[in-house]
Write a structure and sequence with these properties.
Structural class: alpha/beta
Strand order of the largest sheet: 3-2-1-4
Oligomer: single chain
Helix content: 40-55%
Order of helices and strands: EHEHHEHHE
Distance between the termini: 23 Å
Shape: globular
Number of helices: 5
Strand content: 5-15%
Length: 97
């Protein structure tokens, strides 16, 4: 098992909103829909401790996530779908609550 910390991950808004600003990763990718959720001053300060990059997930990956969500009857938010799709696109971990 590789115990090294990931250098890059996709995070959802709750990680930035509710965390203690101690992150085991250096770079966070977030889709625009998640970025729009992060509005508090505290969350913005937490973002400054990371290298945060806003990246649009591919339409194909978003479609796949929505199809699977419907298939298993598991309603998801647009933000969750976008974050998972982005993690699939970049082949990195998704950090969520």
């Amino acid at each position: 098992m590789n115990a090294s910390k990931p250098s890059k991950v996709v995070v959802d808004a709750n990680v930035l909103i509710h965390s203690r600003a101690q992150f085991p990763f250096k770079k966070a990718l977030i889709p625009p829909s998640v970025h729009q959720e992060i509005q508090s001053d505290i969350s913005q300060m937490k973002m400054q401790k990371l290298d945060v990059v806003v990246v649009e997930p591919s339409k194909n990956s978003v479609r796949k996530v929505r199809e699977k969500s419907a298939e298993i009857n598991s309603p998801t938010s647009e933000q969750d779908e976008d974050a998972l799709a982005l993690a699939m696109d970049k082949k990195v971990l998704l950090v969520t609550d």
